[in-house]
Amino acid sequence: MPKIxxxxxxxxxxxxxxxxxxxxDQDWEVVGEARDGYEALDMLQTLQPEVLLTDIRMPRMxxxxxxxxxxxxxPDLLCVVISGYDDFTYVRQSLRQGAKDYVxxxxxxxxxxxxxxxxxxxxxxxxxxxSKAIAPKEDYLIRQHVSEHLIAGFLRGSMHESELQLLQKIxxxxxxxxxxxxxxxxxxxxxxxxxxxxxxxxxxxxxIQQFAQEILNRRAKAFCFVMSDTDVxxxxxxxxxxxxxxxxxxxxxxxxxxxxxxxxxxxxxxGQPAEGIRQIPRTYNExxxxxxxxLIVGGDKxxxxxxxxxxxxxxxxxxxxxxxxxxxxxxxxxxxxTSRRVETxxxxxxxxxxxxxxxHQQVCKLLIHYYELALELGISKRWLGExxxxxxxxxxxxxxxxxxxxxxxxxxxxxxxxxxGGGTAPFESGPIDKSLRFIERHFDQPxxxxxxxxxxxxxxxxxxxxxxxxTGKSFIEKLTEIRVEAAKKRLAFTGDKIAVIAEKTGFxxxxxxxxxxxxxxxxxxxxxxxxxxxxHEPER
Length: 540
What we know:
It is built from 27 helices and eleven strands. By secondary structure, the protein is α/β, with parallel strands linked by helices. It folds into four domains: 130 residues, Response regulator (Rossmann fold, 3-Layer(aba) Sandwich), CATH 3.40.50; 168 residues, Alpha-Beta Plaits, CATH 3.30.70.270; 102 residues; 68 residues, Homeodomain-like (Arc Repressor Mutant, subunit A), CATH 1.10.10. The longest helix is centred in the N-terminal third of the chain and has 24 residues. The protein starts with a strand and ends in a 5-residue tail after the last helix.
């Protein structure tokens, strides 16, 4: 059964056309209705109709622009345009863009039946040709669309390892154990309102996607595609987490060269390397969160999630602003206390900040922090409902009155506290989970309890107590455990000297390393390595 998508900005016309098609020919399935070209592009991607029936005159993206983009993305799509009698110039333009037919308003049943019959004939002929052979260009486009669909599924966490075999068959071969996402967003301000209106926004993103693919291919196995009307996503397959350094360099090259060659600027969010396909949604979410910091630090940058999460990318030039008491009430699920503390926290912030921009920067930072926590706990939808975190941040940044800002933050954070307190999972462990990930990323450095507490926005004394309650170990005990486990792996699987291993796993010197290692394992590092090697020697 062939599928058809109807596009028109008048609801009554769309409904009437759907009813007319269903009544006259039940072979057709009307799979959706769109109000303009932007909605239609999303539906074309998800619904994959064979025929597009579109009005020419529509707001935002009209039928001519829609055809231009659809011809690039969906070359097999048959397009029929709808026009008034006074718009025949546009009809001729549509036919030059590849439209297969047209109907005039008001649509007559006989004329619509003729057009639908002609489309069925074209689809039947195409199916017959395809059964014999697929042209190389068509084959490439089919593989591209299938790959985009599968990889979008990986980003959402809705695909399985068996899909990798299908990707491999169509030429996308991910054989390395680590994955990493980058998200590229065009800075609309760099285009200029007039230029953006004149051009098709989707063409900008296709340009960015092709440019990014070419550069990333030099550094890693990569697949780039236009994820939405605003984002280009790159999924990279890496042999080792350290390969991220090359991707950071590539991202900076993408940013600089796009700016140099096209006078556009882009902001790029980078997630952290993740092991296995099940962790792909994590690195994708991290890249998206890193991008949110564009509201704080501005565009035309490469934003690394690890740096933004640690607060190193956000410098406001004001005294340290603390929300530890607020953090405690939220994590412990006490909405009434959260409501009271929001007013104190925002009032203190407004008194300390040098200008309104600093206030908005810190509030955005706070809300991004809690959005990340909500994602980890699986309650982001319950917290924000249908709202998008970007629109929440934009709304907050539009507030200029202190009482309005307090009320907006109170509503948001009280609701979050209720979601945490009303759940069954141990939600208050969120900051501790984050602190453990921080330690695992930085154990090879002289990391301190205060540094980790600052990274999760907790008072060091409270953090120390909470950490012991949640993990059963003190901060130092846990840090030592992680360092010793890392040292064991290096002793077993590398030929590095013991002094080098001590340095690479965060120990001050080899004497300290020897003492701590023996205390934790009962043997010296040298004895541990000798035992491992002797146990793997073949018997004679």
